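Predict structure. Input: Cytochrome C and Quinol oxidase polypeptide I, 412 residues.
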Amino acid sequence: MAGLYLTVGVLAVVGKLAVEVGFVEPLSQLRWVIVHLVTIGAMTQALFGALPHLISNVGSSTIRLSPRLRWSQWISLNTGYPLILFGMTTGSTVVAVTGATIVLVALALLLVTVYRLSADSRGSLLSRYYRVAPWFLVVGIFAAFGMLLNVHGPGGYFGSIEAHVHANVWGFLALVVAATLLQLIPALTGTELRYPRLKRITFWGMTIGTVGLVSGPWLAMHVLTFTGLAIYVIGTIALLANIVGTKRASGCTKDARVGHILGAYLWLVFPVPWAPLVLLFPNVVPGAPIETAAINGLVFGWMLQLAMAFLPIVVGAFGDTEGVVDVPSAVESSSYTPSWLGVGSINLGMLALWATALPMVSNVAEMLSVAGFALIALPWAVFVVRLWQTFIGDEPRAQREEPTDTSASLGD
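Output follows.
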C-alpha cells in the first residue's frame, strides 16, 4: 500500500505541474492531497507494517500475535484513509471525520501490538521511542478532528493546523525514524554507534520539544513554541552527531543512502530559524509562503528522501518471510543503493521550492515552483519503479535471519 500511494503521489505531482503550467484547471485540495499521499499514504503505511519488527529487533519478545490483529490494523487503516482523501477532495466533513475515526481505531490496534511486543524490553531506550511515538499520532488525529469540526483552542484554526503537523511529523514520524536510524546506521556503516549516550538526549529532546511544538500553537503561547523548538533542535543535533560520527568512524566511503539521510535532515531543520521571525514579525516576514515551503520540505525533502534511502530494503526483507525480520541485518546485507544523481536532483528541487518563499524572487516564483517539483518528480518516479521491481522480485532480496523459535513469530 505504501508503494501504491507513492505511485499515485508522483502522478499527482505530475498533475500539479500540469496545473501550474496551465494545461489543466486547478483541482480542489490538490496540494494537501499530495501531502497526505506521502504522509498517511506512504510513510504511515510503511511504519504500521514495520513497527512490530523494529520493536522486536530491540527487545527479546517471545509473544506470538494472531494474524487477525495485524489484518484488523491493515483493514482499518486502508478503509479510513481513502475516506479521509474523499472527504478532503469533496468537502464532506462527515466522510472525513468517519475516515479519521477509523484510522484512530487502526492506531489503537497498533498501540496494542506495540505494547505487547515491548513488554519484555521496557528497559531498552529504543523501545521507549517506539512506545511513545504513536501517542503523538493520537494527538495529531484529535487536532485534525478539531479542524474538521471547527473546534479549536486559543490558537484558532491555524494553531490547530500547526499542532496537527507538529504532532504527526515532528512527533510520531520523527521519533520512529530517529530510533530506526539509531538501529540501522551501525549496520549501514559496519561499525558501532559513535555516541551511544546521546540516544537519551535525542529521545528526551525530541519528545519534550514536540510537546512544546504541539501545545504552543494550540494555546497561542509563543514561549512554549520557542522553548519546544529549542529543545527539539538539541535532540536533533544529538541524532545527527551520532549519524555523522558513526559514518566518519567507518571511513570515508560514499553512500547515497547516507546522502539522502543528511539531505532529509537538512530540510527538517531548515525552517527552524524562520519560525521565530514568522511568529514575531508577521507583517515583515511572509508567513504563508514560508509555511508552504516548510511543509514541502517536511514531505518531499525529509520523508520522501528517507523512503528512497530504505524502503526498498525493508520491502525486500519482508517479502518472503512470516517471522520476525532482522531489519539491521537486512540493511547490512542489501545491495540496494540509490543514485547520487537522485540525491542531487531532489535536494536541488527543494532548494528551488524554498526559494519561492523569498519576496525578491516573487516575479519568477511560479517558474521556480515548476522547476522544483519537476526535479523532485524525476528521482521520485525512478524510485517508484525500483520499489515495484523489488515487490515483484526483479531485484535480489536481502538476506535475513529466520526465527528459530516459532514462539517468536509475529504470524503476519
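Residues 16 and 22 are 10 Å apart (CA to CA).
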